[in-house]
Amino acid sequence: MKDVNTNRLTDSFVSMAKIASPSLQENKFSEYVRQQLTELGFFVEEDQAGAATGGNTGNLIATLGGDAEREALMLCCHMDTVQPCQNIRPLIDGDTIHTDGSTILSGDDKGGIAAILEAVRQVKAAGVPHGTLQVVLTIAEEIGMFGSKNLDYSKIVAKKAIIIDAEGTPGTIVVQGPAKDVIKATIQGKSAHAGLAPETGVSAIQVAARAIDRMKLLRIDAETTANIGTIKGGEATNIVADRVEIIAEARSLSNEKLDAQSLHMKECFVAAAREFSVSAQVDIQRSYAAFTLTADNPLVRQCVKAMEQLGLQPQLVSTGGGSDCNVFNAKGITAVDLAVGMTNVHTKEESILISDLETVTRLLVEIIRTN
Known about the structure:
alpha+beta; nine-stranded mixed β-sheet; five-stranded antiparallel β-sheet; 10 helices; about 35% helix
């Protein structure tokens, strides 16, 4: 098999990086990558996830038929990026691609998309036998995996998926990710003039402070974290604040520990409100479930074998962040998240190595070949 076409791979990534695709505004980029997939022979469909989430395009589901005796395989990345992503100017210094310092680079996750496209080109050019390949490119991952949550699963035939969306060096396999709860609390106090009659009011801010002071927050244990994200309330210094809204989160690799932490936070809000004889409305929403794959999972073994074949050192890791991987595993599709080499993601110092893009491309070809 011919080696990776480095110039084509690099040009592909740079071209995609220049197309702004913030969450819920991925349409222009979607049109570009749809054309690339169509030229590669995929049947490309767009689902209704955009309409469901308020975006201007849906997820792309691209299917390429293959040997019916081989398992179908999904390759997945997300199309959206964090801000600032307008007018990205990628610069190439030797083996490194970075920005001019005014924007992100968007290696998260266009590095993965570039590797997928080049891997498919290599597979087709070399006539590598393969089962049905599905390339799924999701929207709105960065703001809560809304694309994968609203994916049209009736169009998905693959029962296993390779996600290319992890930070770190190629060879890293994310096999464990946390569940996350979003906790929204509204405390209703009683307004009063803060200078003339403060004793007739109940400060919702004071109630919130009492509750938060009693909470276990930040690092709870090796598997669990919790954080107060935003607090909004009050109108002026001379008015006792009668309403406060708090948005918090909790995460854990253990669903049971997450249940306990979220309930603890709710009880703190309710108890503080009761002490001040006011009300607290607390809503807990499970954003995504935890997943854990063992070293003897068939898909994990497949990835490890492919990495070893290329001379990589496989590393099975856990992450504190969520991704489409969480959603797919919860939907019954076994999924792992592989690192593509991006560093300093979500910052203006973001960069990616061309050699890492090459390595991930080779890895995907090997995974497809041995699937």
